[in-house]
Amino acid sequence: MDVSTREQWMTIVEETIVAQPRVGQQVLSMVKGLSDITDGFSVDQMQHALQTATRAERDGADEEVIVASLLHDVGKLISVPNHPKIAAEILKPYVRHEVYCMVSYHQDFQGRYYYEYLGMDPNLREQHVGEPWYQLAEQFADHWDQKAFDPTYDAEPLEHFEPMVLRVFANAKSL
Description:
single chain; 0% strand; Hypothetical protein af1432
C-alpha cells in the first residue's frame, strides 16, 4: 500500500462498487446458515429470523428495520455472546443509526425476559432510556424478537426478503 498510486486506488474503488451486489448475496447466505443453529430453542435461528422480520413487516416497519430484523442474530454464526455487536457492525454502513443501535443493544432489551434466570440484571434496557432509538429497540424486542420462536407461526420465506436485503446492501451510507 505504501507504493500505491491514486490511479490504482481509483481502480480498486471502481471494482469494489461493481462488486457491491456480492455483499447482499453473502448476507443472504449467512441467514441460510442460521438454519443449522437451534441451541435448545423451539425453532432454528433462520426460522427465528424469518419470524422476526415478518412480524416487523406486518407491523409496518420500514425496509431497513425489516432487513435488520432478519439479520439481528447472524452474529451467532461466529459468537453467541457477542452476536448483537457482530450483526450491528455488518449492518452499520447500510442503515441509519437508530436501526444500528436497535440491533447492537437488542440483548439488553431481551434480558427482561430471561436474565433473572441467569443471575443477571433483567432491567439492562433502562440504561438506554432517553436514547433516540430506545422506542424502536423496545418495539423490536417486545413485539417482534421475543415472540419469534413459535413453531406454528406463518412467516414469510427468505425469498420474500431477498429483494429488500439486496436493496439495503446495494449502497453503503457510510464507511
